[in-house]
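Z., the sequence and structure:
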Amino acid sequence: MAAAALSSPHLTLDVPSNHDTPNSAGMLHYYDEPVHLSLAGDNYDDGPTRGLGTDDGPGLVTPVDNTRLTLSGDDGKCGSDGHSGTCLGLMHQCTPSPNILCLDMDETLGSFGPFCIAAKIWRHFEGSFPPPQIAVATHLSQGAFRPGMKELLNTAASLKQSGHLDEIVIFTSASNEGGYVDYVRQCVELFSNLPPGTVSRIISKEHSTMPAPDGATMKDLGILVDNKSYPGSQPGDARNCIIVDDKPHNICQGTNVCLSVRPYDQWVSPMELLEHLPGWDRRASQECIEHAGGKLPDIQVPDSIADTKTGLSLAAVVHDAKQYAPKPWSDTLAADTDLFHTASRIISRFAPQ
């Protein structure tokens, strides 16, 4: 599905598309490149309806048997590595398995759809993503980050510092093209008051390409353990790896290795972040929003600013808002406690009393 081009007769802005992640209907957004500042839906990873992401999962994947599943060959598919469970059991007696905590990103750590749009607009004009301090203060801390994310990250960091955890990894179906996931990691660490590198690795769509039934990607935790990262361990030995995810049915090793959370989809307007973009015409932007009654899908960009940074950016935001209607603020989501509970669960998993 190609996104419509938003351009003027005098000025065309080409913004490469980063993300092919699923929307709430479980379908991937595919874009023709280059896209003319039309960034709609680039990082929507909504998955199942809120409330379905329980520990049991939707039952789309049959639990695996004793044969370890790994990414086999170059096709990115989950498949048997050819070792029997007995053979692996003998190898496990001789080799340590690292304790790794994986964190899904979209709809697990936060709701990043509108943020991705604004961040990519910013990168197009400025050549880089917004300063993390501005992104956190104006958008991510205003409800885009899920409640309890800071507490979960600090709990994991303490377990890592105490030696109970070897590594914290972001494992996402989103693309890291242009360093977008690296940038989100920066913001996560900043907001959580943790030093850079606390989240030591990113596994993104580029590493795991097998599509899942719901349009995301399958996640094989076995790819975390290789000779380079853990030379003393058996490659693919993920028996001590777990993942926090809102889509447990997409984990190759089965739902038993997933600390599942409900999908988090609090909608936060991208406008405040965009208003800090250098050269932004705040008065023109506010007039457009006021004339639309505060409704982004109803904004009409006047010809007087259509060729400007503000006008082109507004047109992209409007295009996105028409495809994915903004949701009213949810007090229920603002009071979400899933990650608080998950923080306790990882203590029980990696540092039982």
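Residues 1-36, 38-77, 80-90 have pLDDT under 50 and may be disordered. The first helix runs from residue 85 to 94.

Let me know what you think.
H.
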